[in-house]
Write a structure and sequence with these properties.
The complex is a heterodimer of chains A (681) and B (174).
Chain A lengths: L1 H18 L4 H4 L17 H4 L6 E2 L7 E2 L6 E6 H6 L5 H6 L4 E5 L4 E5 L12 E5 L2 E2 L21 E8 L3 H4 L6 E7 L2 H4 L1 E8 L3 E11 L5 E11 L4 E3 L11 E3 L4 E12 L2 E13 L15 E18 L2 E20 L7 E23 L2 E21 L4 E6 L3 E15 L2 E11 L4 E11 L5 E12 L3 H5 L6 E2 L7 E14 L3 E20 L5 E21 L5 E13 L12 E12 L3 E10 L14 E10 L6 E8 L7 E3 L15 E3 L4 E9 L1
Parallel strand pairs in A: 6-9, 26-29
Antiparallel strand pairs in A: 1-2, 3-8, 4-5, 6-7, 8-9, 10-11, 10-37, 11-12, 12-15, 13-14, 15-16, 16-17, 17-18, 18-19, 19-20, 20-21, 20-22, 22-23, 23-24, 24-25, 25-27, 27-28, 28-29, 29-30, 30-31, 31-32, 32-33, 33-34, 34-37, 35-36
Chain B lengths: L1 H13 L11 H15 L1 E2 L10 E7 L4 H4 L7 E2 L2 E8 L10 E4 L7 H9 L4 E4 L11 E6 L2 E6 L1 H6 L3 E2 L1 H6 L2 E2 L1
Parallel strand pairs in B: 2-4, 2-5, 5-6, 6-7, 8-10
Antiparallel strand pairs in B: 1-9, 3-4, 7-8
Classes of the chains: A mainly beta (681), B alpha/beta (174).
């Protein structure tokens, strides 16, 4: 008996293995009494049809293998999200080779290739959900923390493309593109999920997915999340404040989101809405420190109707029309010298609609040709700032704008193992336009080996917040801002070996001109200017392995150096070294897993030129699936297992406290736990 | 440097877990296993095997399937032993019961299909226009999973009977 069980496990593990990723049907316990060893030949067709093969769509806007993609790609599957106990998109991205995430206890900020500029709300990263652009029209924010409106349990996999993507996607695809692919309805069925964690944190989700006989596919899901946050937080820089540096009960965080998707033949209608309220415990923007009434609310939603059809075997047309909404509502408690303190209300409203279309011709002689066009009408881009008592309007800026772009990309097989990918996109904005090319040479002498030489350019248009925001007390406008530009050079070697290892080694040189940076002007107000020229040079190494027993692991190391070209000084919030290790091991069949991960970032320089701590952070999750009850998943996670003192760099807005020194670094959570259960039926 | 030692130790610790590895080329592992499975659900006319007790799987040209299909060598299907044969020219397909034509052989696709039609061969391919060009089972991908479509008419012309089970699993039948 024992032997037979062992073989069964091997078989199902093999399917996971080959896929190098989740194998939904197979691993969920649909085992059959198989008699042969660890190859796929004894799998039924139904099982084989569930095995996932790793393909990516983000790098070329058509499906291709990771090794063929004209970029350095990482794919994170829902299986990893569960096994490692990731709570937010930020948690997921933190585990990806070469990326680092900073958190200022309000938002999370992603760093790529050593770039994460304080004051940038991830505007240099393009975030897509099933191809729909999530960056908003006011701040260009790519929301990756609890303000990200999609429950991460609804993610099938995440593709991350390092480097510029403006030749396909236009603005914001500056340092990288995150594309989130959602799960299909059939797989979701009915799911209930709940979690409990430290800091009085709770969450609940209910999802329903089905495919009707008519072919109509429906997915509906709703999530609520609430956290009281840390009861007290200590900021040593503020030790001389009335609360002696403590902020009490002001780290709260709560969110709600709903997601609905209907697909029928070639059409898909998606609706997403999420809202989050977060207390700001850091006294940012000169607000009264230790007042829990300072908070931000972010609200993001969209409706998207998309169409995808293969017109013949080699022509694919996809198109979408969409309507998007973004709302920001900040309440800042300020002290204008005469007690009691008053509330300053800072709001932004963005609404926009648009359309895009992409035509792909595959295997058109030796070419894969993509053509596309995109149009966006930002009908409302309003920002307002008012004082409650005495009433005052500090800013009432109403804007609208239109932008459009067209692109063409051709992937040409020069020789069988050698392909060249040439792409260029033209973007038109009210005040400027931009042309961004990308050239990639991909040489695959054998299936297991790929060499890539990449050159890319990208731009980011200044957003209305950077150009027009002026509140008279903390930020000043600069309507003359120009787009910032980047040129990048990458050389990458990807190699599969010993059947179950995959390695990647790369070097890169990135050069940014006219970088939009937050500076302090003569009247000590924050203002954005195209002042910096920066460059980054670095090395990226990673090794991934998977084994027949269902284990999977990855180690990565990045070295990078980013400098301000004009001064020669090192950039702030840029770690020299990044190292990560992830390992997931089955303890019992394919039903119980233990998954530790290690993350290290060398010290990062703060704005005050001090350095952050550099501890090794360890997280550990025990995850079970179908153990005891089919359809039941349970996980127990410990984050920051060794309770190390980790810090992230604070932005300029944390240096505006009257009579107090600027916050340099913000302490991150110590050891904390989460329990989670999901039931699918 | 402690951390790097830790990383190295961690990886060295997990390497003994390694058993004989599965190939990284998932897609062609799956396609090879599917090819083998197709044979279970197709009936060849009795005379098409002659006196041979084997069932011959032919693989045209060069693709990763050349190596992944080797795992099927010697297995039994329909009481016959699977034998793998590489073919490099269309006129070599005589005697094959199953023929896989990879997308790298696109230029010679019609030549291969023409030759296959002189025999009773189940043709399988992974180019976009495979079934439209007269092939019988075409692989394609959807949501990162391997799917297949069936050209029933082409199979019936060669007196190959495809079981309803296979037809039900095919997402598209023309």
């Amino acid at each position: 008996m024992k032997k037979i069980i062992r073989r069964r496990i091997l078989c199902s593990a093999a399917a996971c293995l080959v896929a190098g990723s989740i194998c939904s049907g197979v691993a969920r316990g649909e085992y059959q009494p198989l008699t042969a060893g660890g190859d796929l030949s004894e799998f039924s067709l139904e099982q084989l049809m569930q095995v996932k093969v790793e393909k990516v769509i983000t790098a070329s806007r058509f499906s291709q293998r990771v090794t063929e993609a004209p970029a350095s790609m990482s794919v994170i599957t829902s299986d990893e999200i569960r096994k490692y106990g990731y709570r937010t998109l930020a948690d997921v991205l933190r585990s990806v080779p070469g990326l680092y995430v900073s958190n200022d206890r309000n938002y999370s900020y992603l760093g790529v290739r050593g770039f994460s500029r304080p004051g940038d709300f991830n505007s240099r990263i393009l975030l897509l959900i099933d191809g729909h652009r999530l960056n908003d029209s006011i701040f260009d924010t790519a929301a990756i923390g609890t303000e990200f409106p999609l429950d991460i349990d609804l993610i099938d996999h995440i593709e991350f493309m390092r480097g510029p993507g403006s030749s396909l996607y236009g603005s914001n695809a500056f340092f990288g593109v995150i594309n989130i692919i959602t799960r299909n309805a059939e797989e979701v069925k009915r799911e209930l999920s709940a979690s409990a964690a430290n800091y009085e944190t709770w969450s609940g989700r209910a999802s329903y997915g089905t495919v009707f006989d008519s072919g109509l596919e429906v997915l509906l899901s709703g999530t609520i999340y609430d956290s009281a946050g840390q009861r007290s937080l200590f900021f040593p820089e503020f030790a001389s404040s009335p609360s002696a540096g403590y902020a009490f009960r002001s780290d709260y965080d709560s969110s709600k989101s709903i997601y609905a998707r209907f697909s029928l033949s070639d059409f898909t209608l998606t609706g997403l809405f999420g809202t989050r309220k977060k207390g700001v415990p850091t006294g940012a923007y000169g607000t009264v420190f230790n007042d829990p009434n300072t908070r931000t609310i972010d609200e993001r939603g969209y409706l998207d109707l998309s169409y995808r059809k293969n017109y013949s075997d080699w022509v694919e047309v996809s198109a979408r029309v969409f309507y998007d909404h973004y709302g920001f509502d900040g309440a800042y408690v300020i002290d204008n010298g005469t007690p009691p303190s008053t509330t300053n209300l800072d709001t932004a409203l963005g609404s926009w609609w648009g359309a895009e279309t992409v035509v792909t011709l595959t295997n058109f002689t030796d070419h894969n040709l993509s053509l596309g066009a995109e149009f966006r009408n930002n009908q409302t881009q309003n920002q307002k700032n008012t004082d409650v008592d005495p009433p005052a309007i500090n800013l009432d800026d109403r804007r609208h704008s239109v932008n459009w772009g067209v692109f063409i990309q051709d992937e040409y097989h020069i020789l069988k193992p050698l392909r060249i990918s040439l792409g260029v996109r033209y973007d038109n904005y009210d005040a400027f336009d931009a042309i961004n090319p990308r050239v990639a040479l991909v040489y695959t002498p054998v299936e297991a080996t790929a060499f890539k030489l990449l050159y890319g350019e990208a731009f980011r248009a200044p957003n209305v917040y950077e150009r027009y925001y002026e509140d008279g007390f903390s930020l000043a406008a600069n309507p003359d801002l120009k787009p910032e530009k980047i040129r990048t050079y990458d050389a990458i070697w990807e190699q599969y070996f010993l059947d179950n290892y995959r390695s990647s080694a790369g070097v890169f040189y990135y050069r940014v001109n006219d970088l939009i940076s937050q500076t302090i002007n003569d009247s000590s107000m924050l203002v954005y200017r195209n002042i910096e020229k920066a460059e980054a040079v670095g090395v990226a190494l990673s090794l991934e392995g998977y084994w027949q027993n269902g284990s999977k692991g990855r180690v990565s190391y990045n070295w990078q150096q980013t400098t301000d070209v004009s001064t020669g000084a090192l950039l702030s919030n840029s770690p020299r070294h990044l190292a990560k290790a992830n390992l997931s091991v089955p303890l019992f069949r394919q039903q119980l897993f233990v998954s530790p991960e290690l993350q290290y970032s060398s010290p990062r320089m703060t704005l005050g030129a001090t350095k952050t701590n550099d501890p090794v952070t360890v997280n550990l999750t025990i995850f079970s699936r179908d153990l005891g009850l089919k359809g039941l998943e349970a996980s127990a996670s410990v984050y920051n297992l060794f309770d190390v003192h980790a810090q992230d760099v604070a932005g300029e807005e944390h240096g505006q406290q009257p009579n107090l020194p600027a916050l340099q670094a913000i302490r991150q959570d110590g050891i904390n736990f989460r329990f989670k259960m999901s039931y699918r039926f | 440097m402690n951390l790097f030692h830790l990383l190295i130790v961690m990886f060295v610790l997990i390497i003994p877990v390694t058993e004989s590895g599965a190939a990284a080329e998932a897609e062609y592992q799956v396609k090879a296993a599917m090819l083998y499975n197709f044979a279970k659900f197709v009936e060849w006319p009795a005379d098409s095997f002659g006196s041979d007790s084997r069932i011959i799987f032919c693989v045209a040209g060069k693709s990763p399937l050349n190596s992944t299909i080797q795992q099927m060598q010697g297995k039994q299907v329909k009481g016959r032993t699977v034998s793998i044969r590489q073919v490099s020219r269309p006129d070599e397909v005589a005697g094959c019961q199953v023929l896989f034509i990879p997308h790298s052989e696109n230029i010679r696709l019609s030549a291969y299909l023409q030759q296959a039609n002189h025999n009773v061969v189940l043709t399988v391919g992974d180019q976009e226009r495979f079934t439209a060009s007269g092939g019988m089972i075409g692989f394609y991908e959807e949501e990162n999973k391997v799917r297949f479509e069936i050209n029933l008419e082409a199979a019936q012309k060669r007196h190959l009977q495809i079981s309803s089970h296979l037809l039900n699993l095919a997402r598209r039948v023309r």
